[in-house]
Amino acid sequence: MDKKEKKFLTVLNDHKGIIYKVANTYCKDPADQGDLAQEIILQLWSTIENFNNTNKWSTWVYRVALNTSISFYRRHRTRKERTVPLPPIIEVLNTSEQGGADDDFLLLTNCLRALKEIDRALFLLHLEGLSSKDIADIIDISPTNVTTKISRIKKKLKIQFHHYKNKKKWTQLNSNVFGNRMIKKWRICWPSIPNWPLTSHGKNSVDK
Fold first, then answer.
1. Intra-chain end-to-end CA distance of the chain, in Å
2. Whose CA is closest to 33, among 93, 76, 79?
3. pLDDT value, residue 18
4. Between the CA of residue 8 and those of 69, 84, 89, what are the distances in Å?
5. What angle is formed at CA 130 by the lines to CA 141 and CA 18, rounded to 5 degrees?
6. How far apart are the C-alpha atoms of 58 and 11, rounded to whole Å?
7. 3-state helix, strand, coil in the chain (%, to 5)
8. In angstroms, how far is CA 71 from the centroid of its own chain?
């Protein structure tokens, strides 16, 4: 195993949760989630030598994962559902069928998926607890712009949340779902990350 491969597998293992959540945020279908996860890992592998040491590894992984996901989403937005799924390199979570996750969490996940791709990235990072400065570094906009956009997204999501709440008659749903309580719940409700075959990045082994 050479130096690049060793570093890649270490970074992948340390930050696999980012790929896991981003893939599930941009794709609902498990087959698409697996395909997207493979694309993200391929992009991480192909660009790891361009990593800027002034940034954190997590910032770089988020940036690559989100950029790849947005491109994937745009390419596949109008395509028909695949009939022969590719073997996933990781196990992904279908949140719509996740047992034990409460209504707040599942509804928030669905509302998040309904956002435009850039807004989805912004609010996902907000739910992950990142600061406006860290989000700005990843999305490449100003911290002030991040704060403004997140405020607008919250208002939009509150409208959607109450719409679904009334439609489904979920009387127990908490209307204040976008504060620290929901950010904490967002992290807790995700199950443990599966043990992925980290010697793979879309093929049977890491290409040298």
1. 9
2. 93
3. 92
4. 20, 29, 15
5. 100
6. 9
7. 65, 0, 35
8. 14
* Ordered structural domains, the chain, with CATH: 1-93+192-208 (1.10.1740), 95-190 (1.10.10)
Tens-place pLDDT, residues 69-94: 999 988 876 554 444 444 443 333 34
The whole-model pTM stands at 0.72
**How far is residue 23's CA from residue 198's CA, in Å, rounded to a whole number?**
16
Query: Which tokens sit at 153?
Result: 């997204």
Please give the structure tokens belonging to residue 46: 């192909």
DSSP string, 74-139: HHHTTSPPPSSPPPPSS----GGG-TT--HHHHHHHHHHHHS-HHHHHHHHHHHTT--HHHHHHHH
Q: Which two tokens stand for residue 203?
A: 């093929």
Nearest to residue 111, comparing CAs of 124, 99, 98? 124
